[in-house]
Predict the 3D structure of the following.
Amino acid sequence: VTDGAPRRRRVVIVGAGFGGLSAARRLDGHDVDVTVVDRNNFHTFLPLLYQVATAGLNAADVAYPVRSVFQRHQHVAFRQATVTGIDWERRLVLLDAADPLPFDHLIIAVGSAPNFFGTPGAAEHSFPLYSLAQATGLRNQVLRCFESADAQVAHQRDGTLNFVVVGGGPTGVEVAGALGELIDKVLARDFHTMDARRARVILLEAGDRLLAPFSTRSQRFARQVLTWRGVDVRLGEQVTEVRPDAVVLASGEEIPTRTLVWAAGVRANPLVDQLGFELGRGGRIRVAADLSVPGHPDVYVIGDSADIAAGPAPDATGDGAPRLPQLAQVAIQGGRHVADEILRGEGAPRPFHYFDKGIMATIGRRAAVAELPFGPPLRGMVAWLAWLGLHLVYLMGMRNRASVFVNWAWNYLTWDRGPRLIFAGSGPPTAGAPTDT
Amino acid sequence: VTDGAPRRRRVVIVGAGFGGLSAARRLDGHDVDVTVVDRNNFHTFLPLLYQVATAGLNAADVAYPVRSVFQRHQHVAFRQATVTGIDWERRLVLLDAADPLPFDHLIIAVGSAPNFFGTPGAAEHSFPLYSLAQATGLRNQVLRCFESADAQVAHQRDGTLNFVVVGGGPTGVEVAGALGELIDKVLARDFHTMDARRARVILLEAGDRLLAPFSTRSQRFARQVLTWRGVDVRLGEQVTEVRPDAVVLASGEEIPTRTLVWAAGVRANPLVDQLGFELGRGGRIRVAADLSVPGHPDVYVIGDSADIAAGPAPDATGDGAPRLPQLAQVAIQGGRHVADEILRGEGAPRPFHYFDKGIMATIGRRAAVAELPFGPPLRGMVAWLAWLGLHLVYLMGMRNRASVFVNWAWNYLTWDRGPRLIFAGSGPPTAGAPTDT
């Protein structure tokens, strides 16, 4: 370090989601040493988690080992660990099961977590969909409920076969549609010894429409398709309590269920609470226009963990400005932006400009909605094919793409699903855990 | 039941392994009602578990939902449950989370469990390979040890990178060979920031040769290939204790390791201990020549849970007779035999005759041994191709076959592995478990 040659700058990226990997790829090959930190050793392709939860895809199809991405890149390292804090004085990222990591630049890209809005019982008894473990957990629960109803007649009438989805945004619509199809097309045949059509899928939305960010025509289309396919869509219903065996609505009504999917809202990953930064909406870190943290010019926050103003603030506090949505594209473009800022090194910070590529949501077989920045809104088969193609392109790794493509083709042609396994664990942590120091 | 038409006989099959499914398929379409009971909702293709454990295949590739097999068969039902006992008076199979099942004929096909021979610590701290959860547990452990050694320098020298396999039978040889390849070809590239070649694979065998049931030439070949590929093969080494961080040998030597694979022996599934039958070798149920339980002509035991004499007994007790090995073919042929016995209904019981189709074991890439009932023993590439082909044929479900084939082709051509994910759980059992009565 003292021998004349300038020391390579060290960039630590916390989080291997869309944002973190986008920044790492942009930095790769330049004159910096990069370390990506994540609690998992794989990147999770969140947009397809609902298909894992409804037995359409394997868990491994939507997960890609981070080390595979950077296998041939000597200056990108990986660390499987959880951040426990930052030592600002010595400029170290502190980790739970790894030696501390020195940094010159820090990129925080830790994503979202479910927001339960303080609803009693929701955190304990509902199934969110923000991690691979939650996706397989939901799949196991749905299949277990069917096994249980088949094995014990009493469970055919006590709500075990009611599946409730809370939240009518894209995630809620996708899960409800896919659950309806799973039950109607696959489980009804698997469970031929009982009447599987007793099962009900109920979608609860507090507002007066589904898919709030979409156009009115797309919203109506989504509602129609879901209803045609047997989903009970109920608007204006607010959840006030979640119990192990029922959900309670604001009207006082109780719907018996053992499976409540929570898709009602997101907040920043609670990890950001410990970092000592000023937080904005949804627990997200307030950032300047260049995505740096005010007062910390070498720390950037990207993606779902950043509270990013979408335009000029109408007042001095900036509180009234609209915010960028929690979308993969915001994270990906933000990752590229901060990588460029770090590589540029000198000069005044440049503001981040988000290029809106549009939004899409799938409702089920041959039905989706897509609203692109050009052209008219798409509905039905065309939007569905666009959705399939785009997700294949953004999925990481040729093997995963091939596997997802084959699974989709199989599911489409045979009306079958693949891995409807109830597979709970991968046991035994009784052997010496090597993570203790 | 009283209206003249004879009641269809009810057959309950406990266990959805090779034996149980073979019996169910043979009975299907005949004048009987069949119910298959298993604690999992899927059949596990045990011969490929070691490939899941070494990140060559997905968990879902070697598991096949039982209900898929019998989706179009109205007279074969499935029950996901564990047998808690048998009510002989009322002829009911009692289950833990399901209504009791009445039976006229009972087939017990519950398979094997690891035999620790009372070795202290082995049950608590070792990784056996008899279930899908154990296979993914071993995969997670191996990958976690590498992550840990990369994250904390101290773990590069404390035995975290020692992987010990106990038992030189086919399973031990297969695991040791596949682990060696995983480390040498894949993890060495993934972990380019440390010297992954510090990692060692050690195969301990208590006897004086590997692959005891094979010919001497096959045994030598296996040992040579393993040694060439960097596995430390140590014969005549007996394990006396397993600790969380070391294994102790009879010589007093201690090998530091956090990952001990137990492939040293099998016994019958402990479930059979509760059924009140007379047990023979390895805790297996003693059966008559027709595979029925002496004194219970309507109860049959097949596969690994049966203690089956391979020939006429040299003495009256039958104790000295050789026994049939624990092989898939014994279970499959036994399943067909007892199905035929049940369907025949009348006449004297017919003895089971096992047709030996030979044995094979794979050692690694392009290396296997195979000894078929005809022709000379095969070694190397030819045996390896025979092994691949046969396992594809016996694997259940076209989708699984396609997926395994694609994975094998990919692994072979790219020297890569697929799903090296550390993926522990599929959470949250906090929501209402529907299995309680």
Notes: Residues 426-437 of chain A have pLDDT under 50 and may be disordered. The two ends of chain A are 29 Å apart (CA to CA). The first strand of chain A starts at residue 9 and ends at 14.
